[in-house]
Amino acid sequence: MKFEEYRIADGIKTSIGKLGYKKPTDIQYKSIPAILKGEDVLAIAQTGTGKTAAFTIPILHVLQERKSAKLRPDGVKCLVMAPTHELALQIEDVFKTLGKHTKVNTLCIHGGVDQEPQIAQLKKGVDVLVATPGRMFDLVSQGALKLSRVEVLVLDEADHMLDLGFIKDIRDLMYHLPKRRQTLFFSATINDEIKKLAYSLVNNAIRIQISPKNPVAKNIEHAVAFVEMDHKRFFLENMINNHPEKKMLVFVRTKVRAERVKKAMERVNLESDTIHSDKLQAERESTMRRFRKGDLNILIATDISARGIDIPNVEYVINYDLPDTSETYVHRVGRTGRGREKGQAVSFCSTEEKEVLAEIEANLGKPIQRLELSKTDYQVIVDTTEDTTDNWKLLIKEAEASKDNRRKKKKK
């Protein structure tokens, strides 16, 4: 079935056509009809399979129909919750792109920026509100945001939204929403505990699960190299130099470590930038824009960027540090191999990370290809670095100084 055969507003079909999409993906094919019928949905699908459009298209159609028939009372009609600023902004962009030829208004609110422009926009009228929990609750508590007319609630990256960090926020949110509403959960992974919580918040939800036995897209190739922690920077340098034109997303475990790796790349004259929660929102948005456009090829990130972010043409995901959980590995590597593109996921595994590697392989259901290195090849990579600095106390001081500078900027 092609998109042109769906009973959706012509304006939405026009936008879909301009994007070059003709047939829905599996998750879109199974989700769109159910959402159009007003069903609650719990949808689980691999990263890069078009989950955002799977709920955006039917929601836009329903709201457009009601506005055209002048059946829509004032107030936010759809609330989309996302765990990070970056994901929230991306969802807003999808709604605006697909809804360009409709009368549906979309606004994203998040922390880290002045709230007054957001409040002013809400007063003008908003149909779809995309929000992170913190800023949303701030505006609700101030009386600047009312959710009593919400008809559709969407939790994107639902497993993260319902984990221990967000479950209280979500339960508090229910007090502000009408009991009669449509609730949609979308995620790439979900465990039994989160599943129970999700079902407690819906009514007879339809469960849609695509490729449940294969959590990662088949067009991603995985490889792992056994590299000791102190040598990882040399192997990243080697990787970048061997693939100078490739776009790489490098994941590290902590914010301090992200800045430390960036400094290491600077010392060997390789340009990179970082994105993590210590950076100002304006800095994060600027860095993401450069990376999306291709003005920046190497982005070093903490797991704030592992969830749901759709960045075009990321050829390599480098797990500089292995993640804490196998689920996070799935989200990280899903930043490459989007849609029909091919992707490479390369991990550096130190001795102390081998247990995590075993957990990741168990979740994938197969071993990850080993990049075999002889002792001689390994030593050549370490010895041929342009970095002659091996003073880790100096590196730590540099990282702390960078952190202090960011704090001063925030105070201003």
Notable traits:
412 residues, alpha/beta, seven-stranded parallel beta sheet, 42% helix, globular
What does this protein look like?
- This protein is an alpha/beta fold and 412 residues long.
- The strands form two sheets. Strands 3-4-2-5-6-1-7 form a seven-stranded parallel beta sheet, with helices on both faces. It has a seven-stranded parallel beta sheet with strand order 10-11-9-12-13-8-14, with helices on both faces.
- Strand 3, helix 5 and strand 4 form a beta-alpha-beta unit.
- It is globular.
- The relative contact order is 0.12.
- The model has no long low-confidence stretch (mean pLDDT 87).
Proportion of residues in β-strands: 15-25%
Number of strands: 14
Order of helices and strands: HHEHEHEHEHEHHEHEEHEHEHEEHEHEHH
Query: Which class do the helix and strand fractions yield?
Result: alpha/beta
Q: Helical element count?
A: 16
Low-confidence stretches: none
Q: For the residues shown, what is the average pLDDT?
A: 87
Give, in spatial order, the strands making up the sheet with the most strands: 3-4-2-5-6-1-7
Rounded radius of gyration (Å) = 22 Å
Instruction: Describe the largest sheet.
Output: 7 strands, parallel
- Ends distance: 54 Å
Shape: globular
- Helix proportion: 40-55%
Task: Describe, in short, the structure shown.
It is built from 16 helices and 14 strands. The protein is of the alpha/beta class.
